[in-house]
Amino acid sequence: MSAATLNSVSQSLSAQEIKESKRNLKRRKLLAILFVAPLVFFILAAFVAPIGTMLYRSFYHPTVAQLVPETLTQLERWDSQSGAIPDKKTLITFTLELKQLAKARTAGKLAEEINRALPGSSSLIKFSARKLKKLDEQLLANNGDQRLLEFKKGKWGDPDLWQAIKQSGSVFTDRYYLTALDLKRDSSGSIVQRDTKIYLKLYWKSLKIALYITLLTILIGFPLSYYLATAKTKTANILMVFVLLPFWTSLLVRTTSWIALLQTNGVVNSTLQSLHIISDPLEMLYSQFSTILAMTHILLPFMILPLYSVMKGIDPSYYRAALSLGGKPIPAFIRIYMPMTLPGISAGSLLVFIISIGYYITPALVGGTDGQMISNIIAFHMQSSNNWELAAALGSLLLGLIIIIYWIYDRLVGVSNIKLG
Amino acid sequence: MSIEDHYVQFKNVKKSYDQKLLVVKDFNLDIKKGEFVTLLGPSGSGKTTCLMMLAGFESVTSGEIIINGQPVNNIAPYHRNIGMVFQHYALFPHMTIAENLAYPLQVRKMPSHEVDKKVADSLALVELDQFGKRYPGQLSGGQKQRVALARSLIFEPSIVLMDEPLGALDKNLREQMQFEIKRLHADLGFTAVYVTHDQTEALTMSDRIAVFEDGVVQQCASPTILYEQPSNSFVADFIGENNHIKGKISSVNAGIAQVMLDCGTQVNAQTYGIDQADELCILAIRPENLFIANENRTFENTIKANFVARLYVGDSIRYFFKLPSGEELMIKALNDQDAPLFQENALVELTWATDKGLVLDRSK
Ligand SMILES: Nc1ncnc2c1ncn2[C@@H]1O[C@H](COP(=O)(O)OP(=O)(O)O)[C@@H](O)[C@H]1O
Ligand SMILES: [Mg+2]
Known about the structure:
heterodimer; A: 421 residues; two-stranded antiparallel sheet; 2 strands; extended; B: 364 residues; alpha+beta; CATH 2.40.50.140; 2 domains; 6-stranded mixed sheet; 8 helices; 20 strands; elongated; binds adenosine-5'-diphosphate; binds magnesium ion
């Protein structure tokens, strides 16, 4: 009885103690938040925000809707399947809006947008805009539709053109994703394959290149890491510097040095020629070969470091135990040692694969046309063709691809098995 | 002398890792078939190195290791057929317990139904019948140790090496495992070479103990001899506790030396081999053999010392005294009625039997 009383007394805290410990807990939480604040800031500012914008841009596209809002409202009544062009009222509204655009010098923008949906329509729109600019507004309000249909031998009589305007006008669009997947909508609005596959091929090629690079880094990195992990400390330290050396030089320097090595009259070719092994220089630069070679070199440390750290942590007595139990050196190595390095191999592979699938600089510099990867085409759409929406869609798909790979990896190996150091 | 009497032989074995410093200096040891021999010594004294040379994982710098009449210096570890238990078990973490046990049989190309049977027997041997499907990570330290032991025995090696196999276990489990290892040794009759730095473990388990210090074997003998007749003060100190009193031999007669202690008292003590008159020596007396003299208990030798402290240990009481010549003495007395109390610095008479005092070399 008295023991029970004693227990109940010692097991509950007084109100004062509870308050005290709550305050302590709060203080510790605050401190923890302060510690992770920089990380959270970087993630928000440099990761979540830009990726969010990118995702948004890839399907939100209000340009046309802002340029010709009235026309689009009118077009809602029009049945695109009917085979006829929209009614008179719609056409008049459009001529008036186009005239306004011509005055504001933004007709070119509209032309560019519609041209994406229906190639070849740009010149018609620009031409019409120039003509309409000179015509009287009152006149157009009465019979603008007739005027419009006179331009360029009645090209405005094509329902596909109006279909294109209607399509471009929707604020939210899957158009860029369709393009990025080599698909399109036909005039009836159903999704069909495009005749030429561009982007799927590129995704596939990027995956393949990334896979080759990953395999090559394992092939080169595994023996090297094993040697590093088992060598004397002094030797291992020196070799480690060699492994890390690339990190101390600029990525550009490392890539351009491959150009110097591989180009037509570069080091490799002139050496082979002077040794009379080949008579004509080999075309090694600007190919898939050079991309894979240079990227394997650049990404090798990302394989070696996790592998090395895992191997360093493997007690040599496992292998010794296998030998003492009668295992021959090579079978014992494969059956006992190699499985223990799996966390390192998988961490390294995931790193190398994910980094290489989205790699940009090296394929851009040494890849030529054959060695281009998906990020190069993304960059092209951002810098040259000014089609940011398509770039965003391509980028989002790449992100999705990486997430899928990560998910598969997690299913097969388990992310908790990753060991980076 | 049959070949069974020197089943394993180390002959003038030396080992250096860096071609400069000798880690093992001229190691000689003959091990009988079925014997349980322990290499005992402080950390870094070269025990593991000797074991690794026997297992074939380290090369022998000079000298020869012979097993069953065959020099094995150039035989690869996987051909030596020696079982080995590692300190941290070295169970393969990606294989189940049953797979771990099956490994040595599979590499010997044993048919799978035989493997299954042997694995089951082996699990039963170490009382882990239910654990075959588990992974090493799901076992406690003691269970892992038993599996490691079973795995080293399953292919019926004639020699089993154990390198501090119980080092990672707590005290109760250690004692239980010591018992288990002894049981397996008695049942299966393998030759065991055991490494430990724990003298109690060595004393309780071994037929013979080789005491290492700095790559040199100081003494190799049975536990009794080692404890009662240590050949030098390193062994005397390393195996159990000891009191040391400096002195000089006056004369020796029939294994009994008359020793003049530095504090001026003349005493008698056993001597083995140290018999030069006027030779400087050390008198060693174990704390449990030294007593506080009273009317009921006085032995041949007595000495007077100043009381320093009394330490209560539970089952025993330790007394600390100081001799006029400066040496400290310790007494381990039973905790019974006549464990007296003293004033600080009180002059107390201590006593011991002649055959419990041992004369040792001063140079060590
Ligand atoms: N692989 C090695 N390379 C170099 N020195 C070693 C190696 N293994 C052990 N040593 C050295 O050899 C000495 C004896 O080590 P060891 O045989 O492990 O002693 P013990 O097992 O008695 O603790 C130590 O000084 C240790 O530093
Ligand atoms: Mg050791």
